[in-house]
Each structure stands twice: as structure tokens, then as C-alpha cells.
Design goal:
By secondary structure, the protein is of the alpha/beta class. The protein has a single domain, classed as Rossmann fold, CATH 3.40.50.150. The chain has 10 helices and 8 strands. The chain starts with 17 loop residues before the first helix and ends with a strand.
């Protein structure tokens, strides 16, 4: 179900893309010199950037483990999927419940090129990929409804995505539109960058992204918490991603006590 438009499958290798820079942070191979250069510029100013990327990835895994296991969510909508890095969300969810359905969404053609890896799910479940931008919530919901029953609970996943959307571009309204379309019992898993812990390092990272033509926004604890307005937060609430439900960790390596400049949380719709 890969949704494309004319020219949508052209990969622009002249400008860095957040998904490919993130892939470089994680040690992946699906990035280009322009992405590596930006990653190197950022890590030169903020040596903890790669560590933060790993911590964020682990947060996604722990949140999915909780939702698919304890909470019994059987449908997931993952927006801002990024380049496949195992274990992917569907692998974690379908390990708990093989009949789980997952729709992945991203706007980067390179993710489309790797969609086959995202679609290798269990025989009893289903995984699909939609090429779209989070700024197109109606399109995403329409496409997702071909696979997911939006009348039943859905786990909405917005991992390390909303810090690329400024407030004046409708960041909060986009999340609200998506959550409003989901049934009671649905969940929101979200992580976003903050300057609360390492203000100077984050400021330099934002400047480096800006030079690469990428908008990056840091938000305070209260500002990240605003994304969960009206939702019931799972304990321990909105915290640094490394501190969210560490008892759910599997296969994580020690990262020390230094702060990770990303807040994360999981909330349920009443």
C-alpha cells in the first residue's frame, strides 16, 4: 500500500534528511555523505547525540512492549517510521500478539525503498507502508483505515518526530487531529527533544540542523507534556526516555547516568 506521487520516489542526496541522519547515529548504512557530514557536525558539538538516538530507539521498544503486552493493543500506526532498524515496531508487537496489524508512515523515499523489510510480519498479522507526511493527517488516516479498524483502539507512535514540526506549523494541532480520530482506549507514544538537560549542546545541534536546511525545535517538559493533553499518562509520566519503564528493557546496553535530551511518554485516550 505504498502511496506515491509523481517524483515522490526521488531521493534527494544534496540535502540531509532527519531519517538518514538518525540511521547514521544508529550505525546504519542507508545514509549519504551529506547526512554523515551533518551527523559528524552535531556529534562534534554534542557527543551524546548517538547515545540519545539509541536511548530513543529503546524507548520505542519498551513502549511497544507495554502496549502490545500489558495493554493488549492489537493495532499500531507508526508515523515517522524512519529507515528499518531491527527490531522494528511490528516485530516487537507481533512477538507479543502475532495477529497485530501495523501501518508504517514516512515521507522519505529511501524508507519506501526499504519498505519490504518493514512488511515482513507474522502470517497472522499484517504490516503495510504509506508514504506520507505527518502534516497530512487526513491522508494518513484515510490510508491507515484500509488496514486498521479505527473504531477499535490503535497505538499511535510519534517517536522523535514532532521536534521537526514548529508550533507555528501546527505541531499540537496535528497530534490532536490524529488522536481525535482514534477510538477510546487508543494510546499515544511520543518522544521529543528538549534543552532542559543540556541547553548549550542542544542549541548547537539545532544550529547545525538549520545550516542543513532542517527545522529542529526543543521543548520544555511542560511543552512536551502538552502533546498528551486529555490523555491518561502511564507511569512514570513524561520523563527522559532512558528513564521510562526500564524494567521492560530487553537487549539494551548500559549508557550511564548522563542525561538524554529527549522526553518520552505514553498516554491513553479515555
Amino acid at each position: 500500500m505504498a502511496e506515491t506521487e509523481p517524483g515522490a520516489n526521488r531521493i534527494d542526496t544534496t540535502r540531509p534528511h532527519p531519517a538518514r541522519v538518525y540511521d547514521w547515529y544508529l550505525g546504519g548504512k542507508d545514509n549519504y555523505p551529506v547526512d554523515e557530514r551533518l551527523g559528524q557536525q552535531i556529534t562534534a558539538r554534542d557527543p551524546g547525540a548517538k547515545r540519545a538516538a539509541r536511548s530513543n530507539r529503546w524507548f520505542m521498544q519498551r513502549a511497544t512492549r507495554h502496549l502490545a503486552g500489558t495493554a493488549g493493543i492489537r493495532q499500531f500506526l507508526d508515523i515517522g517510521t524512519g529507515i528499518p532498524t531491527e527490531p522494528n515496531l511490528h516485530q516487537i508487537a507481533q512477538n507479543s500478539a502475532p495477529d497485530t496489524r501495523v501501518v508504517y508512515v514516512d515521507n522519505d523515499p529511501i524508507v519506501l525503498a526499504h519498505a519490504e523489510a518493514l512488511l515482513r510480519g507474522t502470517p497472522g498479522g499484517r504490516t503495510e507502508y504509506v508514504q506520507a507526511d505527518v502534516r497530512e493527517p487526513e491522508k494518513i488516516l484515510d490510508e491507515a483505515a484500509r488496514v486498521l479498524d479505527l473504531g477499535r483502539p490503535v497505538g499511535l507512535s510519534l517517536i522523535a518526530l514532532m521536534h521537526f514540526i514548529a508550533d507555528d506549523s501546527g505541531a499540537y494541532e496535528l497530534v490532536e487531529t490524529l488522536v481525535d480520530a482514534l477510538a477510546p482506549g487508543s494510546s499515544l507514544s511520543l518522544s521529543a527533544m528538549t534543552a532542559d538537560f543540556e541547553p548549550e549542546e542542544v542549541r548547537l545541534g539545532i544550529a547545525a540542523y538549520a545550516r542543513g536546511g532542517v527545522t529542529l525545535v526543543s521543548r520544555s517538559h511542560a511543552e512536551v507534556g502538552r502533546f498528551f493533553k486529555g490523555l491518561d499518562l502511564v507511569e512514570p509520566g513524561v520523563v527522559s526516555v532512558k528513564d521510562w519503564r526500564p524494567e521492560l528493557a530487553e537487549g539494551e546496553t548500559p549508557i550511564g547516568d548522563e542525561p538524554v535530551s529527549l522526553y518520552g511518554g505514553v498516554g491513553f485516550k479515555r
